[in-house]
Write a structure and sequence with these properties.
The complex is a heterodimer of chains A (about 110) and B (about 80). Chain A has helices spanning about 15-30, 70-80; strands at about 1-10, 35-50, 55-65, 85-95, 105. Chain A has about 110 residues and is α+β, with helices and mostly antiparallel strands. Chain A has a single domain, classed as Alpha-Beta Plaits. Chain A has a five-stranded antiparallel sheet, with helices on one face. Chain A is globular, with a radius of gyration of 14 Å. Chain A starts with a strand and ends with a strand. Chain B has helices at about 5-10, 40, 55, 60-75. Chain B is globular. With about 80 residues, chain B is mainly alpha-helical. The chains are: A alpha+beta (about 110), B mainly alpha (about 80). The interface of A and B includes residues 43, 103 and 105 of A.
Chain lengths: ~110, ~80
């Protein structure tokens, strides 16, 4: 099992309850492929640095999870079908060290 | 306008090195480059969002590769232009 960090952009017009619902679905997908969620961090609403697909902003959430590497493609395919997920990027996250478990560098 | 922009308007790359002043170091040795830190990454791109060469930013070759990767990851997520 590898440690991954996924950054999600959800639709900007999602309400608080709606976002929680979608996040539950997102975490459920990870568990469905045999992974486990370490943490979920909301970064809140942000404006994009440039317009992307005629959208100007979105809600950013970071989910750190553990999962087998072979399941990442399946996860990405699932998230692509979800219309509330505007964009997602999954990157390898380094194992947390005992001293500083918070932020970890990303690797492709 | 950054130093790089001024230099670029003077002529094609390689013609003149004058005006391409080095920035004071902004990355500490061994500092981790995180794609989520868009504010930090903006120091390494022009206003148009193009990567600055390391001869101007003064970072090491290894850091430049980390910055390159981080900037590209940040662009995908709309954190950088």
């Amino acid at each position: 099992m590898n440690r991954y960090e996924a950054m999600f952009i959800f639709r900007e017009d999602l309400k608080e309850e709606g976002l929680e619902e979608v996040l539950n679905k997102v975490r459920a997908e990870i568990k469905k492929v045999g992974g486990e969620v370490d943490s979920t961090t909301r970064m809140g609403r942000r404006a994009f640095a440039r317009t992307m697909q005629k959208k100007t902003g979105g809600q950013y959430v970071i989910v750190v999870f553990r999962c087998a590497g072979s399941q990442i493609t399946a996860l990405l395919a699932k998230y692509k079908l979800n219309e509330d997920v505007f964009r997602v990027q999954i990157l390898r996250a380094a194992e947390p060290t005992a001293a500083a478990p918070a932020e970890a560098p990303e690797k492709r | 306008m950054s130093d790089y922009d001024r230099d670029a308007s003077r002529g094609r790359a390689g013609e003149s090195q004058r005006g391409a002043r080095r920035m004071s170091p902004v990355l500490l040795p061994g500092q981790v480059v995180d794609y989520k830190d868009a504010e930090m990454l903006r120091k390494f791109v022009t206003e148009q969002g193009r990567l600055l060469p390391s001869r101007i930013t003064g970072v090491t070759a290894m850091q430049q590769r980390q910055i390159k990767r981080a900037v590209r990851q940040a662009r995908v997520m709309g954190l950088l232009p």
